[in-house]
Design a protein that fits this description.
CATH class: Few Secondary Structures
Low-confidence stretches: none
Strand order of the largest sheet: 1-2-5
Shape: elongated
Number of helices: 3
Helix content: 40-55%
CATH superfamily: IHF-like DNA-binding proteins
Mean pLDDT: 96
Length: 91
């Protein structure tokens, strides 16, 4: 399912127009991205949690030359599925 299909499904389920559903879905995604980028954890009970995680500096290799190089530390977004989500997928 892509974003367009999600918007169609939300519009159908909530009995709203596709334009309204697009506005809501886009606002929700933007709000989650903004919160996580500032270091906040976003928890949607039953669905899961979005958070920022630290990735340590590590050693890597250039695939072309085989040269060893340092990959700098960075922050990455992470998602952890909630209990209800895990149960729904498992059944």
């Amino acid at each position: 399912m892509n974003k367009g299909e999600l918007i169609d499904k939300v519009a159908e389920t909530a009995s709203v127009t596709k334009k309204q559903a697009d506005a809501v879905v886009t606002a929700a995604i933007d709000s989650i991205m903004e919160a996580v980028s500032t270091g906040e954890k976003v928890t949607l009970v039953g669905f899961g949690s979005f958070e920022s995680r630290e990735r340590k500096e590590r050693e890597g290799r250039n695939p072309k030359t085989g040269e060893v190089m340092q990959i700098p530390a960075t922050k990455i977004p992470a998602f952890s599925a909630g209990k209800l989500f895990k149960e729904k997928v498992a059944s």
